[in-house]
């Protein structure tokens, strides 16, 4: 069904570009846009040119809907001052200006037949007020139909979404809510690491787009980890059942203490048993590393201490697999000392870089 809708949308966009679209086809396009509850997801399948064409068409439709009750339809019904005011305003707002081509010339009335200046002023003021009302309506409509973004920059974020879903975002994470969030569905897009405790609503599935994967739930708690610095896109379930898809193909139906690890390069994935509470301990300030890679260790050190990590040679084995634990109170030197003891290595800190190197006495 999604593919059929996309094909219809593309066909209608081609007709808009060619200038051959009919009114009933425009109504169909409006219906398809309203019906697409995951619009911000499927829009990624459109080309930049198609998206620009769609945006322009929507602006024009909105403009016509907003103005048809305020502005007279015929140019002969509009006095020149009002028309000029509208054209000046429309130009600044990037709206289409009035079409006066072929409009009959407005004859100048004799002095005794001209309306009083007060009446002219009132007429002009009402016209300007109508213009401002139209612009305000368009601005508010566009504002309320924009995706909402949250970004955890330098710290974690803890808050609730409009549907009462509890969100905890780790540092360097981003969450984008669909403009139609909590209307017919609850669609979001994310990167980084986020813990979701989704408010239960069987009629409105909660859909998360993260990288190549799409996770869908109705009411459950879980963590998604999809940092660009890491090789894997990971889903860890605390409670409930979580469905994960790669495109349209379901690749896993996860239950509590299941972890899906999806390699972003190869597309291969595996499901393993883990302690979900331990894996989500970062939400309370504890970092627990279990079989972590060098990249994950480097990420955690950067998040907690703002330092780059360099591991020289085989100082921590080949490949690096890290088992460690620290919290917000742990000093960097204490963490590095424990790692050095565990892996029989040594370390040094210089400016914004931490270097772990083989023990020179070995």
Q: Outline of this structure?
A:
Helix content is 34%, strand content 28%.
| Approximate strand percentage | 25-35%
Distance between the termini: 64 Å
Structural category: alpha+beta
Overall shape? elongated
Kindly state the number of beta strands. Answer: 18
Q: Mind explaining what this structure looks like?
A:
This protein has 362 residues and is of the alpha+beta class. It has 3 domains: 2-100 and 115-144, no CATH class; 148-279, Jelly Rolls; 285-358, 3-Layer(bab) Sandwich (Phage tail protein beta-alpha-beta fold), CATH 3.55.50. It is 34% helix and 28% strand. The protein has helices at residues 2-18, 23-35, 39-42, 48-67, 80-93, 117-144, 276-279, 294-305, 332-343, and strands at 148-151, 157-160, 166-169, 174-177, 186-197, 206-210, 213-217, 221-226, 232-239, 242-246, 249-254, 258-263, 269-273, 286-292, 308-311, 322-327, 345-350, 353-358. Strands 1, 2, 3, 4, 5, 6, 7, 8, 9, 10, 11, 12 and 13 form a 13-stranded mixed β-sheet that branches. A 3-stranded mixed β-sheet has the order 15-18-17, covered by helices on one side. Helix 1 (2-18) packs antiparallel against helix 2 (23-35) and helix 5 (80-93) packs parallel to helix 6 (117-144). The model is unreliable at 34-38, 69-76, 100-107, 113-122 and 140-144 (pLDDT under 50).
């Amino acid at each position: 069904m999604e593919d059929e809708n996309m094909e219809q949308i593309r066909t209608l966009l081609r007709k808009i570009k060619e200038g051959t679209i009919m009114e009933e086809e425009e109504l169909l396009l409006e219906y398809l846009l309203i019906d697409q509850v995951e619009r911000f997801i499927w829009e990624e399948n459109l080309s930049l040119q198609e998206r620009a064409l769609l945006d322009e068409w929507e602006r024009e439709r909105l403009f016509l809907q907003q103005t048809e009750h305020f502005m007279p339809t015929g140019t002969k019904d509009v006095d020149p001052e009002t028309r000029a005011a509208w054209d000046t305003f429309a130009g600044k707002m990037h709206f289409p200006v009035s079409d006066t081509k072929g409009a009959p010339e407005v004859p100048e009335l004799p002095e005794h037949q001209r309306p009083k200046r007060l009446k002219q002023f009132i007429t002009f003021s009402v016209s300007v007020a109508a213009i401002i009302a139209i612009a305000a309506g368009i601005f508010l409509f566009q504002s309320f139909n924009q995706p909402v973004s949250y970004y955890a920059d330098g710290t974690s974020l803890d808050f609730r979404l409009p549907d009462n879903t509890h969100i905890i975002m780790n540092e360097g994470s981003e969450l984008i809510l669909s403009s139609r969030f909590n209307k017919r569905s609850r669609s979001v897009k994310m990167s980084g690491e986020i813990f979701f405790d989704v408010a239960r609503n069987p009629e409105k599935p909660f859909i998360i787009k993260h990288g190549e994967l799409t996770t869908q739930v109705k009411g459950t708690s879980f963590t998604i980890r999809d940092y660009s610095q890491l090789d894997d896109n990971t889903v860890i379930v605390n409670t409930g059942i979580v469905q994960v898809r790669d495109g349209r193909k379901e690749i896993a139906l996860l239950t509590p203490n299941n972890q899906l690890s999806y390699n972003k390069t190869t597309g291969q994935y595996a499901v393993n048993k883990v302690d979900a509470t331990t894996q989500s301990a970062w939400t309370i300030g504890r970092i627990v590393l279990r079989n972590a890679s060098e990249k994950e260790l480097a990420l955690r050190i950067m998040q907690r201490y703002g330092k780059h990590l360099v591991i020289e040679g085989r100082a921590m084995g080949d490949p690096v697999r890290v088992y460690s634990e620290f919290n917000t109170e742990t000093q960097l030197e204490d963490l590095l000392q424990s790692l050095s003891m565990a892996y029989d290595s040594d370390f040094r800190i210089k400016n914004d870089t931490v270097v772990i190197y083989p023990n020179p006495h070995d």
